[in-house]
């Protein structure tokens, strides 16, 4: 079923530092997704705890925190048909070394942690994450 959705993506610090923001956004725009809003920020410890609460008990959580706070990220509200599922498909699985060629992580990612992009994984997550980063589930400028 076709459904118009808005999802939240974060271009991760290593991808921003490598100058990959433009390529990532171009791939998404070429697939028909529209940028509704966009901002660059540094993730604070409080924001990270909230954003990765589902991983907080894992042994490598401190490494994720260090990595995600190592430089600015680019947060984007992206809209389009079935945006939540489709963007995750274009992104590929978490482990970049296992992500198929042609996916963003398969082509541009390094490993499990350094995997270019975060994207909301459900409608509930998208709503919470859009509010977290833009203060609204429909953050039109
Ligand atoms: P995804 O980003 O694909 O939705 P998760 O929500 O499970 O994956 O994990 C959030 C982020 O934490 C991942 O994108 C990755 O940067 C990091 N991460 C997850 N699992 C591992 C792991 N086993 N080793 C290192 N980093 C990991």
What keywords describe this structure?
single chain, 141 residues, alpha+beta, Alpha-Beta Plaits, four-stranded antiparallel β-sheet, 7 helices, 20% strand, globular, binds adenosine-5'-diphosphate
CATH-defined fold name: Alpha-Beta Plaits
- Category from helices, strands and their pairing: alpha+beta
Cα gyration radius (Å): 14 Å
Strand content: 15-25%
Give me the number of helical elements: 7
CATH class: Alpha Beta
Q: Indicate how many domains the architecture comprises.
A: 1
Q: Compounds present?
A: adenosine-5'-diphosphate
The end-to-end distance, rounded to whole angstroms, is 28 Å
Supply the CATH architecture.
Answer: 2-Layer Sandwich
* CATH superfamily label: Nucleoside diphosphate kinase-like domain
Strands across the major sheet, in which order? 2-3-1-4
H/E topology pattern: EHHEHHEHHEH
Poorly predicted parts: none
Shape: globular
């Amino acid at each position: 079923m076709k459904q118009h959705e808005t999802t939240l993506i974060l271009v991760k610090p290593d991808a921003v530092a490598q100058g990959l923001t433009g390529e990532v956004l171009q791939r998404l725009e070429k697939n028909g997704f529209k940028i509704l809003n966009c901002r660059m920020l540094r993730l604070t410890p409080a924001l990270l705890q909230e954003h990765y609460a589902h991983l907080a008990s894992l042994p490598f959580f401190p490494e994720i925190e260090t990595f995600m706070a190592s430089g600015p990220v680019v947060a984007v509200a992206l809209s389009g048909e079935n945006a939540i599922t489709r963007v995750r498909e274009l992104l590929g699985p978490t482990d970049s070394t296992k992500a198929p060629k042609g996916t963003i992580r398969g082509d541009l990612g390094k490993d499990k942690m350094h995997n270019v992009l975060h994207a909301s994984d459900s409608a509930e997550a998208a709503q919470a994450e859009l509010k977290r980063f833009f203060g609204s589930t429909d953050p039109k400028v």
